Known about the structure:
Blueprint: H1 3-35, H2 39-43, E1 46-54, E2 65-67, H3 69-77, E3 82-87, E4 91-95, E5 98-112, E6 118-134, E7 137-155
Parallel strand pairs: 1-7
Antiparallel strand pairs: 1-2, 3-5, 4-5, 5-6, 6-7
Amino acid sequence: MTESERFAALDRRLRAVEDRLEIYQIEGAYSRAYDGAKGDEWAALFTEDGIYQGRQLAGMGELNFVQGRKALSEFCSSSPVNCIHYINVPDISIDGDEATARANFTFRAFGTDSFGRVNATEAQGYYDVAYRRTSEGWRIRRRFTVYFERRQGTAYGYEPSASPFGDSNPPFDATAGFRDRR
């Protein structure tokens, strides 16, 4: 191998390392910006037409779909919860100016409803992410949230007053059945 070929090989290796580090930096900034409700900062991690969405699995309700930096910024800035992401190191594949990754995550969020009750969400899953090299550097082109498990709960707190028994029961209807809220 000639000296020129060695330098060219070294240059390719260095660029691959720099690309990978830049993508890792995006993932680190992703959590900090979203968890801090810094909408413009979070949106800047995406391409101009970037997409954040939930991946629809059988039996799930409608999930988030947000496209474009303006909408991404508003989505992040208007988050009704205080949250924290724990994102694992992504497994990245780079092919020229395109890259993909999968990163496992845990997400915890807390909010308060109009009655002052605390609502908590905990989710585990992974992000499937497509990146693109742009004039601004690497950016997220599309990000799917795929849930393994998601739990939500509300802490109702102690209610010091008695339940409203009333003087008698409502009229009995033997054909009414029951309400199943499981």
